[in-house]
Amino acid sequence: MTSRIEAALTAATRSAQDGAPPKFASALHYAVFPGGARVRPRLCLAVAGACGDDAPELSDAMCASIELLHCASLVHDDLPCFDDAPLRRGKPTVHRVFGEPLAVLVGDALIVLAFESLARASASVPSRMAPLIALLGRAAGAPHGLCAGQAWESETGAPLQEYHQAKTGSLFAAATMGGALAAGADPGPWSVVGDRLGEAYQVADDLLDALSEPHEVGKPTLRDAALARINAVTLLGVDGAVARLRQRVAEAVESIPACPGAGPLRALVMQTADRLVPKGLKQSAA
After folding, report:
1. φ, ψ dihedrals at 174, nearest 5°
2. What sections of 82-190 are H helices per DSSP?
3. 3-state class of 243 per DSSP?
């Protein structure tokens, strides 16, 4: 699965780099490689596999497009106007290496590239193009996508669940539903899986921000407190956040539709949740 994801991302980014201004091309590559755990594309391919994966080129493009949107969101999130973060994935952020103007353009270009790559691959199964593009658009924009999730940080008293669903859950839902759509299956039953897993992932990330050291997570911590931003730990306490995480993971597992690949999917959901939980809390969040 990892080789499929990396090959799809390499092909997509290479198409955007060829002929582009040299520094811009380097910044595009830097924003995507090396990646993190590639959780969202792994989930997308796992669901596609469970649904038959009858158009692997299309599911590869969908998983890459979701990861490109994720990488774009990280580049933008790290900008001085938002988090002003110096590190991401254990290395200097894009704007620290290439400058703020190029970082803005890189984030924009990755968003466009996500749609372009998916549209190009959908030509082989044109009947699936419109629903896949629409799904990706909802995940990226407003009122419940990535842009809305980022915008909630400019509000006072943002509702925790809506904030988490938009900022993180939207791409997880796109991953599960997109995997099903790419394989020609009904995406509806897969929505809750992504929503719940996305919420669990964000609660785990809130715990990491509050309780971990920067070298453990490869990015600055205590940022939510410094920016007076809504956080599950602040609202629920550590025990409450762990309970919320455990509840959302259980709901994600329980909502996986009956399918031949249900067992591996459940294992992937549990692995995804476990990866982000601070070491001292793993037992209570299991």
Report:
1. -65, -35
2. 94-98, 100-122, 129-140, 146-151, 160-164, 170-182
3. helix
Longest dimension (CA), the chain: 52
pTM: 0.92
- Digitized pLDDT (tens) for each residue of the chain, 286 residues in all: 899 999 999 999 999 999 999 999 999 999 999 988 899 999 999 999 989 899 999 999 999 999 999 999 999 999 999 999 999 999 999 999 999 999 999 999 999 999 999 999 998 899 999 999 999 999 999 999 999 999 998 888 778 889 888 999 999 999 999 999 999 999 999 999 999 988 888 898 899 888 888 877 788 888 777 877 878 998 899 999 988 988 998 899 899 998 877 888 888 777 776 765 666 665 443 3
Separation CA 268–CA 154 (nearest Å)? 33
CATH code for the domain in which residue 134 is found: 1.10.600.10
Q: Which residues are bridge partners to 91 per DSSP?
A: 88
**Residue bearing tokens 């590869």:** 60
Cα–Cα distance measured from residue 252 to residue 234, given in angstroms and rounded to the nearest whole number: 24
Question: CA torsion angle for 194, 199, 202, 204 (degrees, to 10)?
Answer: -100
Angle at which helices 262-276 and 232-254 pack, to 10 degrees? Answer: 170
**Residues in CB range of 114: below 8 A, 6 or more apart:** 64, 65, 66, 68, 69, 72, 136, 140
- How many domains does one find in the chain? 1
Q: Between the CA atoms of 97, 99, 101 and 105, what dihedral angle is there, to the nearest 10 degrees?
A: 0
Range(s) of the domain holding residue 146: 2-285
